[in-house]
Sequence to fold (249 residues):
Amino acid sequence: MRPALALAALLTAVSVPAVKAESLKEMIAAEPEAFNEAVADYLLSNPEIIIEAMKVLQTREDDAAAVRDIEMLAANREAIFNSAADWAGGNLQGDVVMVEFMDYRCGYCQKAYAEVEELVKSDGNIRFVLKEFPVLGDQSVLASKFAIAVRMLHGDDAYKKAHDALFTMRGEMSPETLTRLAEELGFDGAVLLAKAATPEVQAVIDANYALADTLQINGTPTFVLEGAMVRGYVPLDGMRQIVERQREG
Fold:
């Protein structure tokens, strides 16, 4: 009975000949076997209706998820867009703010890296915020701690150089390779790694983990704008369209 009723609701949702809800319930109660047989016959004759019904349900679920995302963004706005622990670049007075939750070991983050750089540069009116969100193991955590330590000790410009280097770096991310990277950037590797091991640095990552959990983010890259959340890699043209929709409100 329950599957039949659910299926009847699906059929009704995609414009099967209209049946009032009360009449439908009466029909099922009076002749359940006949009703089930009629539904089965209809589906055998019109199998495409199942695909249509699933599309309707998926659209409704997507719309509901988008509403939930907007509500979560509004409730956590300061932590998302204005945390003092995050690097911000691009146009700091831009009319669109875009936040990226990223992991240096994430293949799709690496793929998005150059395209996001191009987007921010070519648009000229995006404030771009980076959130260290290492989710792919110990090497990811070590790389994020290194980058955060660079910012704490040497400032935003140094952080961006380290960030760029980490995204273009190939091979293992280990204390040895990061020490060499620090020296290439003109910093003391031992001092940086000591800073990276402090509770102050860990607190930044923990705060980002907690925020991601609240926002139901569990993968990278994830892009957050004031009116939308984009989970996963999107090519450059798609990101431009998302930014323009944000501007249009």
User: Anything to note?
Assistant: Residues 13-18 have pLDDT under 50 and may be disordered. The chain has two domains: 2-75, 77-248. The CA atoms of residues 82 and 135 lie 22 Å apart. The first helix runs from residue 2 to 13.
